[in-house]
């Protein structure tokens, strides 16, 4: 007869308790779903070694013949949890069981549990655990020695032999040896029944009824209720368990099968341990390899904007992020018109470095299994930057006509009027960008649906800046145009220079910047433009170019003919940055300013040179011939005569025009000539060119109209006014002059 009860396990979960019918699949065996628990028995829970090492039965009938025999006899084991119980010990007397742990029916044989070292039977909820005697040879789930209540207590000693001798009915003091080497001694009056919860169980003796059946995994099946249960002696040694029987009842004996060979069990244990070591080593090696390989790479399961990037290093991740940004294409539709926009069109850029860091960070700090499991999703966000102004401009430019678009008021400089003027703003329409921004956000997070076609709508658009705010900005800008910002070079006399910033330049350096968020128009100074333009303006206005002094000497000598050109000291800017900063500050603050630029003097240089000497070639050096015989002056360029004039020369004596070779050394466009005291005269004259001390070419209007071709002067060469100007203009300082007859 099969029966199934529902009990509570140690964790409080319902468990199925099969009957002791061998035809029912045995649960609780290795490879089955859970431990077997007979109705009313104490289920024992053992460690992994006790469940696996050397123990792999396929069925209860094959490995528990006692159980099968009792089942065939129609015995259904049961223990009354309300029956009194004696004490049980683990061998050192330290673990007494309370009396309520085992049944005490008069006809129930005693059952003692024997377990491997370290395996303690676990009792169901509400029942104490039964301590097990240690066995070093055979890892048994449990073993039980049943003794009738009438039998006197007998001590159980350790037996060395691996075989188990079966007990026969009526044999006096026959020791019953358990597989663990535990010997149970019983009196001659009572037959002995020994059941083991181990890899093999003792078969029932022929003709013996009411034999306790033992379930797998250390679960006892109690005998009929007529036999009371005696507790084992708590003073037994750790390796032996003493079964105490009541001598008032007869004892039924069951033969005990031979124990498995210890060597075979050791071999199985070694194989299993070796296999476990190999598996653990393989797993450890795989873990070390995964940690080393993925240390600086994206871990398994990582995606970036929906793309799998597992195993990519930082450089590869940056390239992937950049490629994702470049391939961004988004069909956009507004009012029936569709365009395909790129990321660049929309002002969308990818921060490749931040995207790479985000992918590498996925899985850090997580449990190893989660971090390196490719089936655990790890989504890295793409670092996108969206220039919303560029995005709005692109959409409005594509989908909103100029006539429909809203316009902010404008402030601009009118060159014709010479002032800033305002163009009023007006309302209009704009594209609603919220859905597009949301789609880009989703795409950055996980690559979802951002590339799907998107339909946008237009919405009313009002100017964010009022016309009044624009007017206020224009007035402030016009006030700047009247500022007096003057920069000087700090020099005195002829080298002093100054420069005032003109209004047109102030306007060019003024930036009108709308601030829609604040609803205002801000005025700024274009510092970059000032730095680019003002230094050249100041250098031209405030500095003086140095002019060298040129001294003309006679050919082949150091004798000075004259200073051909007088030198002039120059100036140069030494620190334009300070002047630029002062001008910029005055413009920003809208105030007048007097700024002195940092300028230093550059002294003139002195140059010495000789007149040119190529007079003997056509079109060569310039020179002037004065022929006193015919009163003519001829201009030459080398051997080429350029022009001749009729002149008057000195009267002779102390007023002679001296013969010789001379050079023009001094020139005046106008001079008043005065005579010595003994011959005083005052003669205003023009276009004077001196070539020999106080003798010069000059105009002599007092000789008009018939004073030419004569000796009348005090030594100078008198000429018509036009002729003297021609010589003045043609002959530079240093021009050679030859005087002869």
Q: Mind explaining what this structure looks like?
A:
This protein is an alpha+beta fold and 741 residues long. Helix content is 22%, strand content 26%. The chain is built from 14 helices and 42 strands. Strands 34-33-32-42-36 form a five-stranded mixed beta sheet, with no helix packed on it. Strand 12 (329-334) and strand 13 form a beta hairpin. Helix 12 (527-542) crosses helix 13 (576-589). It is elongated and about 170 Å long. The N and C termini lie far apart (171 Å). The model is unreliable at 1-254 (pLDDT under 50).
Strand element count: 42
Q: How many distinct helices? A: 14
Helix content: 10-25%
| Mean pLDDT over the full residue set | 72
Q: Catalogue the unreliable spans.
A: 1-254
**Rg over CA atoms:** 63 Å
Tell me the distance between the termini.
171 Å
Instruction: Give the CA-based shape.
Output: elongated
Main β-sheet, spatial strand arrangement: 34-33-32-42-36
Binned strand content: 25-35%
Q: Would you tell me the structural class of the helices and strands?
A: alpha+beta
Task: Please summarize the sheet with the most strands.
Answer: 5 strands, mixed
């Amino acid at each position: 007869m099969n029966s199934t009860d529902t009990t509570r396990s140690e964790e409080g979960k319902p468990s199925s308790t099969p009957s002791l019918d061998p035809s029912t699949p045995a649960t609780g065996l290795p490879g089955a779903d859970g431990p077997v628990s007979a109705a009313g028995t104490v289920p024992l829970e053992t460690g992994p070694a006790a469940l696996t090492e050397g123990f792999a039965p396929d069925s209860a009938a094959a490995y528990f013949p006692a159980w099968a025999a009792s089942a065939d006899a129609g015995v259904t084991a049961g223990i009354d949890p309300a029956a009194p119980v004696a004490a049980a010990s683990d061998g050192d007397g330290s673990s007494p069981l309370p009396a309520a742990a085992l049944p005490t029916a008069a006809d129930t044989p005693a059952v003692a549990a024997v377990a491997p070292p370290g395996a303690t039977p676990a009792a169901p909820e509400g029942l104490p655990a039964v301590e097990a005697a240690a066995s070093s040879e055979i890892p048994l789930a449990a073993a039980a020695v049943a003794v009738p209540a009438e039998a006197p207590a007998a001590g159980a000693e350790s037996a060395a032999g691996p075989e188990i001798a079966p007990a026969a009915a009526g044999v006096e003091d026959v020791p019953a040896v358990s597989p663990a080497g535990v010997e149970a001694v019983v009196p001659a009056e009572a037959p002995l029944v020994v059941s083991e919860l181990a890899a093999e169980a003792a078969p029932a003796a022929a003709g013996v009824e009411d034999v306790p059946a033992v379930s797998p995994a250390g679960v006892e099946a109690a005998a009929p209720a007529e036999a009371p249960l005696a507790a084992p002696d708590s003073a037994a040694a750790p390796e032996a368990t003493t079964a105490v029987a009541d001598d008032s009842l007869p004892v039924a004996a069951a033969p005990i099968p031979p124990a498995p060979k210890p060597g075979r069990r050791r071999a199985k244990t070694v194989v299993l341990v070796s296999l476990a070591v190999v598996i653990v080593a393989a797993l450890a090696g795989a873990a070390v390899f995964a940690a080393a390989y993925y240390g600086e790479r994206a871990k398994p399961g990582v995606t970036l904007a929906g793309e799998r990037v597992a195993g990519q290093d930082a450089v590869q991740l940056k390239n992937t992020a950049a490629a994702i940004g470049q391939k961004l294409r988004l069909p956009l539709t507004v009012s029936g018109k569709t365009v395909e926009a790129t990321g660049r069109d929309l002002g969308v850029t990818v921060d490749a470095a931040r995207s790479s860091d985000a992918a590498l960070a996925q899985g850090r700090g997580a449990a190893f299994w989660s971090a390196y499991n490719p089936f655990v999703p790890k989504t890295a966000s793409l670092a996108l930057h969206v220039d919303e102004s560029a995005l709005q401009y692109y959409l409005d430019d594509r989908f909103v006509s100029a006539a429909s678009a809203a316009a902010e008021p404008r402030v601009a400089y009118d060159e014709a009027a010479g002032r800033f003027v305002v163009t009023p703003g007006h309302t209009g329409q704009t594209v609603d960008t919220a859905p597009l921004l949301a789609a880009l956000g989703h795409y950055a997070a996980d690559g979802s649906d951002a590339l799907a076609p998107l339909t946008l709508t237009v919405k009313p658009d009002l100017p964010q800046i009022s016309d009044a705010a624009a007017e206020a900005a224009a007035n402030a800008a016009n006030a700047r145009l009247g500022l007096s910002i003057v920069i000087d070079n700090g020099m005195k006399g002829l080298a002093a220079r100054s420069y005032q910033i003109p209004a047109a330049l102030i306007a060019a350096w003024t930036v009108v910047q709308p601030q829609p968020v604040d609803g205002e128009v801000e005025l700024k100074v274009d510092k970059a433009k000032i730095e680019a333009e003002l230094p050249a303006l100041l250098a031209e206005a405030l500095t003086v170019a140095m002019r060298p002094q040129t001294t003309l000497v006679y050919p082949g000598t150091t004798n000075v003919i004259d200073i051909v050109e007088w030198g002039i000291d120059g100036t140069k800017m030494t620190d334009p940055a300070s002047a630029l900063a002062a001008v910029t500050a005055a413009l920003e603050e809208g105030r007048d300013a007097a700024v002195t630029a940092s300028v230093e003097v550059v002294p003139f240089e002195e140059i010495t040179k000789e007149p040119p000497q190529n007079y003997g070639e056509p079109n060569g050096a310039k020179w002037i011939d004065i022929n006193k015989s015919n009163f003519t002056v001829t201009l030459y360029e080398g051997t080429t005569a350029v022009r001749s004039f009729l002149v008057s020369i000195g009267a002779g004596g102390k007023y002679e025009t001296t013969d010789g070779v001379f050079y023009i050394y001094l020139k005046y466009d106008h001079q008043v000539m005065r005579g010595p005291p003994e011959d005083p005269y005052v003669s205003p004259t023009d276009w004077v060119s001196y070539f020999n001390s106080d003798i010069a070419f000059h105009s002599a209007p007092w000789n008009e109209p018939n004073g030419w071709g004569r000796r009348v002067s005090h030594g100078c060469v008198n000429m018509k006014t036009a002729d003297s100007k021609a010589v003045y203009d043609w002959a530079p300082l240093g021009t050679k002059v030859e005087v002869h007859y």
